[in-house]
Structures
1.
Amino acid sequence: MLGLLSGGATLIFGWRVKSARYWILGSVLLMVTGEFLLSVIYFWPRNTIMFTEGTAVHSAAYLQQTAQEFQMGHWLRVGASAVASMLAFTGFLRLYRDRISARIRREISPTDFREEP
């Protein structure tokens, strides 16, 4: 949850930097999709099958299949988190580059490049 909040705050405060905007937006959307939506749609039903209903309702073979599906989904979530991290890192590098470029532009005024007569 903290990752989503900090990602959203970064997106809001860094929105004016167009070169970073979509990298950070992609990261936040991937975090929402990979963490929240995948959990609600994919993991919660499997948790119910494995831990709430268990062997009282399902066979051991079905529970084993459900556990394998859960593990496969987990690796998908890990991969999505890795891609989201790369997108966020790229966005932060773009924000940093924009900030450094702005600082250099302020320090070097156009009058510094006048030709001598």
Note: Helices lie at 2-13, 18-57, 60-107.
2.
Amino acid sequence: MATTDQSASPDAAPTRIVLIRHGESASNAGRWISGLETCGGLTDLGVAQAEALRGRLAADPDLRPDAILVSTMRRAVHTAEIIAEPHGMVPQQHADLIERTSGEAEGLTVEEYTEKYGIAPWTDWENPLSPGGESGDEFASRVFSATDRVVGEHRGKTVWVVCHGGVIMISAARRWPVASEATSIAALPVVSPINTSVSEWLVDPAGLWRMARYNDHTHLVGVTPVDPQAPAAL
């Protein structure tokens, strides 16, 4: 949960954590469970989404980043490289920002997974998707630690974090006590963020988190259809 820093000046600027979901990936389009080894990168639509976001962010000087952080998955790295280009910045890759790991199920389609394991993927919060993957609690613990690390290393700065739907949902759900009782990611009190959507936290000097916006994807008008049922973790 949020931490406090009693030594922080109450007049210090808040830390802005801008969470950006990657553009549409090959696994989103093909509905397979992807990981570091099977991430197919962005589709042509995913590139177009990232380019639309690049234009929007470049036109907003108030959101100019002091740092750009990114998951080590290809789809996130490609998205970060596209939106970072106007700022001449190299995104910093961090392995603790990746999507929930899936273990030996990596590479299976949703249908193949359901047939093999007798349950739809991401509906069991307590257990890993398959041997070698993370449980929901392990994933949440990693996300909490990663986002707290980002704040600790960039106090008072604006930081873009290009990551994944599950990471953004867990980050948002940390503000609701019910999140600790969720039995699946579908039970979290937040919707799956759209590809290249923007969600933003303001973290005050005392370490209190306040959400400024969630799943803001107005830059996609005319670029892509929106499927609110698309799984966050593909």
Note: The mean pLDDT is 88.
